[in-house]
Amino acid sequence: MTQEEDAQMEEEDAEKAQHYENMDEMPYELQKYWHQRYLIFSLYDDGIMFTKSAWFGVTPEPVARKIAAHIALAAPKHKTAIIDAFGGAGGSAIALARSGRWDQVFAIEKDPEVIKCGKRNAEIYGVSKKIWWIQGDCFDVLKARFKGVGKNYVIFASPPWGGPQYTDTTIFDLKKMEPYSIEHIYSNFAKVTKDIVLYLPRNSNLNQLVKYASADREMPIIHYCMKGASKALCAYVGEFSYPLQNGANEAETAIQE
Ligand SMILES: C[S@@+](CC[C@H](N)C(=O)[O-])C[C@H]1O[C@@H](n2cnc3c(N)ncnc32)[C@H](O)[C@@H]1O
């Protein structure tokens, strides 16, 4: 086997869905996530699965739970379903399903190995029957399957941020977010529903978000923190009620139980 083939095989292996049993199985650059594994998924030892790239993107459980509680409270009452457009390993979709607020939770994920992780992780949390996983490109799937019916839906979007480099600048330019700019995401998703929760880097340029606010109502933008530091922010675009805090603790407790 040539060196190139060897390297390629290693790369392919790294992107397979698997349960990591110990830190030595993980590439060096991922080992910091190993120490946070129970914060990311409290049921990690039950067989939680990741691909290499899924470790980078997953929303840690306490953050996912708080966001799910906020969405449950603040979304317009007539909304009956939610679509997690970038389902990943299921961190967000599992919390949304556990909130009990939704008749249906859809999770779209384009990577077949990552979707395996999401499905397995949802099983571990006992919500596999509550999440409809759809493998595909969310822009295509939303257009083909949800345009028209989507007015009764909320979209939750935690897109890729272009890797850990988002921390390299003080203010993150959402127009240059890779591979999808904020405009690309919003303009496509707004064709399905106007109620969209955007999960974005904590240093996102807020001036680029305010244009999505309507003239006559507030648009909450909330930082979600762990251990005293912001992990990310969510922009609640559309007709979400504000303030979100009333009842949020009760809603979150309900998710834990
Ligand atoms: C930041 S992660 C989402 C993490 C997820 N919220 C969680 O908590 O596990 C982004 C995910 O979007 C997926 N993705 C990227 N582009 C996509 C697309 N066009 N359609 C569907 N999924 C996509 C990636 O494979 C990745 O798993």
From TrEMBL:
GO terms for molecular function: RNA cap trimethylguanosine synthase activity. Keywords: Methyltransferase, Transferase. It catalyses: a 5'-end (N(2),N(7)-dimethyl 5'-triphosphoguanosine)-ribonucleoside in snRNA + S-adenosyl-L-methionine = a 5'-end (N(2),N(2),N(7)-trimethyl 5'-triphosphoguanosine)-ribonucleoside in snRNA + S-adenosyl-L-homocysteine + H(+); a 5'-end (N(2),N(7)-dimethyl 5'-triphosphoguanosine)-ribonucleoside in snoRNA + S-adenosyl-L-methionine = a 5'-end (N(2),N(2),N(7)-trimethyl 5'-triphosphoguanosine)-ribonucleoside in snoRNA + S-adenosyl-L-homocysteine + H(+); a 5'-end (N(7)-methyl 5'-triphosphoguanosine)-ribonucleoside in snoRNA + S-adenosyl-L-methionine = a 5'-end (N(2),N(7)-dimethyl 5'-triphosphoguanosine)-ribonucleoside in snoRNA + S-adenosyl-L-homocysteine + H(+); a 5'-end (N(7)-methyl 5'-triphosphoguanosine)-ribonucleoside in snRNA + S-adenosyl-L-methionine = a 5'-end (N(2),N(7)-dimethyl 5'-triphosphoguanosine)-ribonucleoside in snRNA + S-adenosyl-L-homocysteine + H(+). Residues 1-14 have a biased composition (Acidic residues). Signal peptide: none annotated. Transmembrane segments: none annotated. Residues 1-21 are annotated as: Disordered. PANTHER family: S-ADENOSYLMETHIONINE-DEPENDENT METHYLTRANSFERASE RELATED (PTHR14741), TRIMETHYLGUANOSINE SYNTHASE (PTHR14741:SF32). Belongs to the methyltransferase superfamily. Trimethylguanosine synthase family. This is Trimethylguanosine synthase. It comes from Microthyrium microscopicum. The lineage of its organism: Eukaryota, Fungi, Dikarya, Ascomycota, Pezizomycotina.
